[in-house]
Design a protein that fits this description.
Blueprint lengths: L1 H6 L4 E4 L7 E3 L4 E3 L11 H10 L6 E4 L6 H10 L3 E2 L2 H7 L2 H16 L5 H4 L19 H11 L1
Parallel strand pairs: 1-4, 4-5
Antiparallel strand pairs: 2-3
């Protein structure tokens, strides 16, 4: 689907937009809106797909769910996103978080000798990581084994 969108002129893809689905109020017997904000655990799905698609499609990527910290922003950029969005974090903790996250990003980049964000984008995508199979379903047993070993 991503390839078809790019082939038809999409300059960028957003992975993944949250679906705001209604809830059912069983006492009032009506459909009601219910906003549930993202949490950091939701980052892994868009992270995986951006990392897989980066370099395979001539388009830019954005991640819109699960971004709550500087580390999440770094992961998104390294996977291959040019943009990470953090609406839930800002709604929960206010606009002051932007400066806090930016300071952490700048410090991390200096500590790890990154000269620019551009240098970072895609650096841990499937095409550039040491173990590309880590993004594939074949890695499933390894993930399960790691859980068993650490518990």
């Amino acid at each position: 689907m991503s390839k078809r969108l790019v082939d038809h002129g999409a300059d960028g893809l957003v992975l993944f937009n949250r679906f705001y689905q209604p809830d059912l109020d069983i006492e009032r017997l009506e459909v009601t809106p219910r906003l549930i904000l993202s949490n950091p655990n939701e980052l892994r799905l868009p992270l995986r797909w951006v990392a897989i698609l980066y370099g395979r499609l001539a388009t830019d990527f954005a991640i819109t769910t699960g971004i709550h910290s500087a580390q999440d922003v770094l992961k998104g950029l390294m996977a291959g996103a040019k943009v990470t969005m953090m609406a839930s974090e800002l709604l929960q903790n206010g606009m002051k978080r932007i400066n806090e996250i930016l300071e952490t990003l700048v410090g991390w980049m200096a500590e790890h000798e990154y000269e620019s964000v551009t240098q970072m984008i895609g650096s841990m995508s499937q095409q550039h990581c040491a173990e590309p199979a880590a993004f594939e379903r074949a890695n499933y047993m390894k993930v399960l084994d790691s859980y068993i070993l650490t518990t």
